[in-house]
């Protein structure tokens, strides 16, 4: 039986879960553009990030999800319901807390030393916020996200790590 490859993929998970890495891999493998939802929320400037208005954010998001093929990834779920609706495949990355914590510190060090470029300036305040958001996601947001995703069970895949790509 020939499986149909998904053309619209929505990846969600906590900070440090591996969303961006998985999106890049899938984008390369399927030849589909990927979009980081943080770059829909924020306008990146040389002087720092500026939050887009909800109208600008939603307009940009809707243009993405109404195109023929896309991979979107992010922690956002309240204003991205259209992405879940239109996705052929939804991937929830339910990565272990210890692994997320390791990835957060690794990203901080690698970007702070200049070996990798990031979307934001690495500061100790940002590092602390990443850990705070990861903890908050686990305790507060994750149950809410799972509840929201119940209606999409037929197209939902839960992965424990982004290296489980072969399960998709």
UniProtKB/TrEMBL annotation:
Gene3D superfamilies linked to this entry: P-loop containing nucleotide triphosphate hydrolases
Organism encoding this protein: Bacillus chungangensis
Stored InterPro entries: Cytidylate_Kinase-2, P-loop_NTPase
PANTHER family in UniProt: DNA TOPOLOGY MODULATION PROTEIN FLAR-RELATED PROTEIN, YALI0E33011P
Protein name: Adenylate kinase family enzyme
A molecular-function term among this protein's GO annotations: kinase activity
Keywords: Kinase, Transferase
SUPFAM superfamilies to which the protein is assigned, alphabetical: P-loop containing nucleoside triphosphate hydrolases (SSF52540)
């Amino acid at each position: 039986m020939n499986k149909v490859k998904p053309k619209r993929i929505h990846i969600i998970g906590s900070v440090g879960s591996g969303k961006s890495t998985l999106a890049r891999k899938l984008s390369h493998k399927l030849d589909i553009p990927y979009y980081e939802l943080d770059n829909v929320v924020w306008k990146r400037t040389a002087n720092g990030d500026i939050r887009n208005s909800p109208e600008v954010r939603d307009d940009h998001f809707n243009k993405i999800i109404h195109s023929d093929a896309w991979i979107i990834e992010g922690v956002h779920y309240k204003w991205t319901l259209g992405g879940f609706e239109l996705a052929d495949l939804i991937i929830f990355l339910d990565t272990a807390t210890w692994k997320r914590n390791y990835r957060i510190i690794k990203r901080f060090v690698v970007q702070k030393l200049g070996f990798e470029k990031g979307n934001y300036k690495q500061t100790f305040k940002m590092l602390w916020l990443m850990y705070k958001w990861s903890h908050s996601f686990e305790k507060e947001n994750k149950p809410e996200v799972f509840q929201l995703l119940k209606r999409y069970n037929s197209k939902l895949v839960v992965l424990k790590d982004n290296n489980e790509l072969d399960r998709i």
